């Protein structure tokens, strides 16, 4: 019997299996270095060498792969990680590899606690951690081995930088035991045209010299190792303008969460920012960042998009996204607790300070600013947020639709704000009662699910009735096969990770609005 996972990139392929090396073993915490200063100094040198190697690889490729490698290189060069590891060497006498391991672990824990997109970035940090540790130990980093013949890659999980460097002529298909449909691996596999299945439990133990992969059905079976390459279709290059074949405009925007993300998005041709996640400014802060600190941090992210539209999401924290300066107490069900905008109801001054910093940063960077609030459930909540945002001098205000109640009352909510943006990742999680980080229920978080699309249709209809735009900023927007359906349902903009922009833009350029609407009308069970 074949194994079942979640198909994230369509196509059929078969061939010999090649296992990707596991992560590095945990480094020892002893013996203590004889010269703590010299040992701490090794960390910056190792990080710089890793960043340089990734940058060199980025210059040898283009498009999606280049954007991912540049982002990973920027993460390796992040002085916050280096400084944290150096501090552990000096204060706890740890060897440099162990210090990097522990410092990265703290960053990964904070990202996982933040949930959603930020939780997915924990895999990126683990990849950077392993590369720096390997450089310190003088060993080869784990990852994809050099392939000499066409093969099916099998891994517990894949780092984005590894996926970005794959040769589609040698990699027949990808299968991972973990991951989900919103991962970087899924996005890059689609961009490269490689059939892929994620969240495939048991694939590492599957017997046989080869694997047969169906990326459309999400199945993986043992095979005799005979090579069957996927059929590859060419796609015209994207010209950087989001539009259909008949000229109908659909803005293609980027989701960003750091200055490195913004730089990669600008390089990839994003027409603006559809979702700027501001949590990065708070995650490692022991105290609330000052307005001046927030202003400078936000401006660094916004500056590549001077003169272009950007949508900044206010702080999405609380409950399962703990912050050191926001004691929230224990909750029996954090996913349904005080998070997002709900944090601000008892702390409006926290929101007001952030709104003022966002408005000032927009002025510094020259962007066309909009703000939106996360986790809005009712029209009254939307009105409360809109009043505070406008009082801070922000003229264009919206909210995210990620709670089913908000989708069902989208008309009333749109009466209070200027636009809405569907966060399909969280919306699917709540609609299907399925944790988006849990591989066992990953199939329910597939954005092609009919119930999710019906909610999108309902919100888009409310937007059309009110004459106000409706965007999608969840990973549903990053799927070239789904993008025409979303446009046909009435969505006016799509925002995604930078690596997905070219594929979505090219897919939309091949169809007209009538075809999108016809596809959206296809019967769904």
Q: Care to describe what's here?
A:
Pfam families: PEP-utilisers_N (PF05524), PEP-utilizers (PF00391), PEP-utilizers_C (PF02896). Its main location: cytoplasm. One of its GO terms (cellular component) is cytoplasm. Its EC number is 2.7.3.9. This protein is an alpha/beta fold and 525 residues long. The protein has three domains: 96 residues, Glucose Oxidase, domain 1, CATH 3.50.30.10; 102 residues, PtsI, HPr-binding domain (Enzyme I, Chain A, domain 2, Orthogonal Bundle); 269 residues, Alpha-Beta Barrel (TIM Barrel), CATH 3.20.20. 42% of the residues lie in helices and 14% in strands. The chain contains 20 helices and 16 strands. Helix 7 links the parallel strand 4 and strand 5. The longest helix has 24 residues. The chain is globular and about 60 Å long. The two termini are 26 Å apart. The model has no long low-confidence stretch (mean pLDDT 87).
């Amino acid at each position: 019997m074949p194994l079942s996972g979640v198909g994230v990139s369509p196509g059929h392929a078969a061939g010999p299996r090649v296992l990707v090396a596991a992560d590095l073993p945990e480094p020892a915490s002893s013996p203590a270095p004889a010269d703590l200063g010299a040992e701490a100094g090794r960390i910056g040198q190792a990080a710089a060498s890793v960043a340089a190697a990734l940058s060199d690889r980025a210059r040898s490729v283009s498009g999606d792969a280049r954007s991912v490698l540049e982002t990973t290189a920027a993460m390796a060069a992040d002085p916050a990680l280096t400084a944290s590891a150096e501090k552990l060497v000096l204060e706890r006498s740890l060897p440099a590899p162990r210090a990097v391991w522990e410092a990265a672990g703290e960053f990964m824990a904070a990202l996982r606690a933040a949930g959603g997109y930020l939780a997915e970035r924990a895999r990126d940090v683990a990849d950077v951690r392993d590369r720096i540790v390997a450089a310190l130990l003088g060993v080869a980093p784990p990852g994809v081995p050099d392939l000499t013949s066409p093969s099916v890659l099998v891994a517990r999980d894949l780092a984005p930088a590894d996926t970005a460097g794959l040769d589609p002529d040698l990699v027949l298909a990808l299968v991972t035991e973990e991951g989900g449909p919103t991962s970087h691996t899924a996005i890059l596999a689609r961009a490269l045209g490689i059939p892929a299945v994620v969240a495939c439990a048991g694939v590492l133990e599957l017997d046989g010299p080869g694997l047969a992969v169906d990326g459309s059905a999400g199945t993986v079976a043992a095979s005799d190792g005979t090579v069957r390459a996927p059929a590859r279709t060419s796609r015209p290059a994207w010209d950087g303008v989001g539009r259909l074949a008949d000229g109908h405009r659909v803005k293609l925007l980027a989701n960003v969460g750091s200055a490195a993300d913004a730089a990669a998005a600008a390089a990839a041709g994003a027409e603006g920012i559809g979702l700027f996640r501001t949590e990065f400014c708070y995650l490692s802060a022991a105290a609330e960042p000052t307005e001046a600190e927030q202003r400078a941090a936000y401006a660094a992210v916004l500056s590549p998009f001077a003169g272009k539209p950007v949508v900044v999401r206010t702080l999405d924290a609380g409950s399962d996204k703990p912050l050191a300066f926001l004691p929230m107490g224990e909750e029996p069900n954090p996913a349904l607790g005080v998070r997002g905008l709900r944090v601000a109801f008892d702390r409006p001054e926290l929101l007001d300070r952030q709104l003022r910093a966002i408005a000032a940063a927009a002025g510094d960077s020259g962007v066309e600013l909009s703000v939106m609030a996360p986790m809005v459930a009712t029209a009254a909540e939307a009105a409360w947020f809109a009043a505070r945002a406008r009082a801070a001098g922000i003229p264009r205000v919206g909210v995210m639709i990620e709670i089913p109640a908000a989708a069902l009352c989208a008309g009333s909510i749109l009466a209070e704000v200027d636009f809405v943006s569907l966060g399909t990742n969280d919306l699917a999680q709540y609609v299907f009662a399925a944790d988006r980080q849990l591989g066992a229920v990953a199939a329910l978080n597939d954005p092609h699910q009919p119930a999710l699309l019906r909610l999108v249709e309902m919100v888009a209809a409310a937007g059309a009735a009110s004459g106000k735009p409706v965007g999608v900023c969840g990973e549903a927007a990053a799927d070239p096969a789904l993008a025409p359906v979303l446009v046909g349902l009435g969505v006016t903009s799509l925002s995604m990770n930078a690596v997905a922009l070219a594929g979505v833009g090219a897919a939309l350029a091949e169809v007209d609005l009538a075809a999108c609407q016809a596809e959206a009308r296809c019967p769904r069970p």
